[in-house]
TrEMBL record:
The keyword Chloroplast does not apply. GO terms for biological process: rRNA base methylation. It is found in: Cytoplasm. InterPro entries: RsmH, SAM-dep_MeTrfase_MraW_recog, SAM-dependent_MTases_sf. It comes from the Bacteria. Residues 295-332 are annotated as: Disordered. PANTHER family: 12S RRNA N4-METHYLCYTIDINE METHYLTRANSFERASE (PTHR11265:SF0), S-ADENOSYL-METHYLTRANSFERASE MRAW (PTHR11265). Pfam families: Methyltransf_5. It comes from Cellulomonas oligotrophica. Keywords: Cytoplasm, Methyltransferase, rRNA processing, S-adenosyl-L-methionine, Transferase. Belongs to the methyltransferase superfamily. RsmH family. This is Ribosomal RNA small subunit methyltransferase H.
Amino acid sequence: MEQHDDAAGRHTPVLLQRCLDLLAPALAAPGAVMVDSTLGMGGHTEGVLRAFEHVRVVGIDRDPQALALAGRRLAVFGDRFTGVHAVYDEIRDVLDDLGIASVQGVLMDLGVSSLQLDEADRGFAYAQDAPLDMRMDPTRGPTAADVLNTYDERDIARVLRVYGEERFAPRIAREVVRRRAADPWRRTGELVDLVRACIPAATRKTGGHPAKRTFQALRIEVNGELAALERALPASVEALAVGGRIVVEAYQSLEDRLVKRALAAGATSSAPPDLPVEPETHTPYLRLLTRGAEEADEAELARNPRAQSVRLRAAERTRPTPDHLRTTRRAA
């Protein structure tokens, strides 16, 4: 695999200034710590470390190559940066290992990273022929080829329909199973050709590349992305000190729906609506900082076309989570 050391030159962080502005009130505290839950090539973390000279950042990523690239990029900041090989739903364990009880900020930039898209051999991009891999951590777990070669037709259709919102999931799944009987799936180019053949020509004229939804679905399945996100959101909120802030950037509707639900749950009273007085234990423990999901403006899109589909949401912790609403263990 070709190696690239210029992480800064290859990656423009999405909505960086907006993220910094939202995090600033929390990160102004002396000794503030932020977790970059999706470190990638370190663009957001570099922005934070330059903007807030006293802040320490713990960067989490499941991709060893991303950690290595970001580590070289951020070495200039010394012990203000700590990189950890983990998945972001392990945030509590990561902080416990580092002796950190709570943090003032959590940043999550979801989806596939620039590094993974740009490295052809990783198999994330439908525009380049490559092995059907798609693992964010290439050291473990099944590949996209394993999914296509071992799942039954019904399960393949379910993955494509649920995670890719693909209208033609049954047709694609049927063809995947039929063709693998003669030759196992190995290459992304072969899959792109199959998907294109399964989607009617009239439909292919709109909605972008015909394989986009299938590749998204396989990537989510291979990496367990939505299940990890569903665990990571409450765990990240529980890691926040009172006054701490969480900022999340999502790039497709399934992710954004989970983010919206988790933040709204914390910002909504849990008291029955007919109670004359709201008990203190039922008051919200989050305050929403954005009105709905924020999108990239024209200036941001001109700088960074990969911001096209971003949906940003943020919230501030106003008090500890009441016991009856907590789904994860609290900070020590």
